[in-house]
Amino acid sequence: MTAPRLAAWLDPGQEDLCRAVVAAAGCELVSVGCSDRGRADLPAGALGVPAASDLRALLISEPVSHILILGTTDLGTDSSGQDVGALDAASSRGVSVVAAEPIPAAALEMAIAGWDQFELPPSRLIRVPSVLSVLREHFADVFAEFGVARAGRIEILTSPQEGGLASAVWSAAELLLEWFGEPESVDAAYADPVGKPGLKLLPGETLRGLRGTMTVNVRATSGRAVSIFVTDQAPVERAQMSLIGASGMLLCESDALGEHANWIPAGSAGQGVQSVHPAEHAEDGVVLPASTRWLVRALQAGLNDRPIVCRVETLLTITQAILLSSRTAQAESPETIARMVQSVRGG
Q1: How confident is the model at residue 112 (pLDDT cuts 50, 70, 90)?
Q2: CATH architecture designation of domain 5-125
Q3: Could you tell me the pLDDT band of residue 63, with boundaries at 50, 70 and 90?
């Protein structure tokens, strides 16, 4: 059986990550582009494939089954709609596009960059790694039986070599939305990766290229509460979720060894019901870091044409409220962001 052909778009230094993801997904790497135009040929040379100079050209005409975007890109920001048109062209050709960071990277980009021109939702044009999808694939029955969560804690750790903070914030927002709905407010703080005394750096206004660590206290509807801790500066990689509800406590984890769930029913004296799904190792027996496995899962969903159900615009209002809160040092509401988007649209 012929391996699916894949083109990749990288930042310098992501060659090993690209090699691992492509091998684990069982694809053939045929071309590589680079976000740094001054060093555009280096990643392709290191990976032994031809260099690509234009991401949009890859989307429109490159003869591949998959395009993997690991590097930072301004794709999805062009106000003429050409970027979204290129993604739509890839979808029309049956090309699956997976990006390590969310595209679009901000709620307002949905309104100004032409996304409204297409009937297909952004999640159908482009796939982003999803911790929620990984957990739901194995523990859907446990999730349904656990019921409503009253409070929770979400933690997503990745390393600088394997992923950015944007992807961690996105996955945390997905888990938040799944279990607690759209929050009333978020109160966030940001720690930059530099950490020089007397220097306080703030994140940008979009998820694009976001690096560092964030904490978020969330006020959810009906008096519920959630805390979030996300970073791309950790020496280990994992996603953990702890939920408390009337039915007891649910602990879920996704790491290099696989997925684990432990439901401890109320009144059970600590006796839980455990479910474990070991991770599949790479062909050479190497254990893949957790975020690499999440990327591979997104690629495999594209291989099988499985849609990743994702409320992109709602998630973007949540994540943009988190970014805004970290800049203003005040609690912010996703509903406020939604009204801003509607105003830009002229509604």
Answers
A1: confident
A2: 3-Layer(aba) Sandwich (3.40)
A3: very high
